[in-house]
Design a protein that fits this description.
Helix content: 25-40%
Distance between the termini: 65 Å
CATH architecture of one domain: Beta Barrel
Order of helices and strands: HHEEEEEEEEHHEEEEEEEEEEEEEEH
Length: 379
Amino acid sequence: MKGMATRPLAQWVAAAIFLAGCSGAPKDKDPAAEAPPAAQVEHVGDVTTVVVDHPEQFPLVAAGQHQFASELVATGVVTPDISRTVPVVSIASGRVVDIRARLGDTVKKGQLLLRVQSGDVSGAFSDYQKALADELLANKQLDRAKGLYDHGAISLNDLQIAEGAENKAKVDVETTAQKLRVLGSAVDHPSGIVDILAPISGVITDQQVTNAAGIQGLASANPFTISDLSDVWIVCDVYEHDLPSVRVGDKADIRLNAYPDQVVTGKISNIGAVLDPALRAAKVRIQVHNPGDMRPGMFVTATFQAQKKEIHAVVPESAVLHLHDRDWVYVSAGGNKFRRVEVTVGHSLPDKMQEIVSGLKPGDQVVSNALVLQNTVEQ
């Protein structure tokens, strides 16, 4: 019994000796123990300023500088060139009996657009026929007067009266014929139907007539309006404080909202002399050759290239942090402090460089990789 009681005690002693021997054995090295300490970030009173324990982990780079032409971006709309827009008019009053074109159609010069049955033309042709008869009679009377005068039967005064009557009859014929031509009818093809033809080639941009409609000549609205869209206007609103940046003759790059990758270059042809009192903006007109995709009413973005040169900061693309739909850079605030500054970016430059329009000046020290610092801040 006594030997059995001492056996557990001996086992405990042996276990203690074994554990002591194991604790003295060499252990494998822990890689994490040899890694440099992680950067600790401390936020100070200003939420845009951070303090790090190891600032050397975030290399700095000095912002460079580059000369750029100042730019102004404005929105605008495509409109037809007024000088290339021609109304289709009907001098003759009457009723529309046939329409051969519709709004939006592309037409050629001389193409038949509509036909009008007009009482004006019928009356004018009647006057023309009477003038022809009177001229024929006056001509016969003149021939007779010449014969009588040659035989001494009438005086010179009577002959001159006959000549005057014949000349007046010729004037009446020419006047009535001209009236027919003005109304749109030909003297050699008399008809009460007037053909209205396209005065120019282009697109019908307005229609104010329908079948069986009445036309009151110049007193009514123009049946059609045709616009030559080979060249169009871009009309932009430029605010009062931006007007010094635009001049007549300056070039502008036009981007259609429908085709943002397509750029068309135009030239400023006019700057409005009167400001819109509601917007405090002037209408700036840009003359542009239509590549074929521009349609009246389309919205565009116009970028004006001014003559003035500006110096902007340039930093590596990695120094710019896009966060919450804004662009930021981390600027050295001295020692182990960095301050986050909002900037406005411009064009992307070669060698992965980025133009900074505002918020940073050349020579400022910025963190070369803003994303790394931001990820450290958020840990």
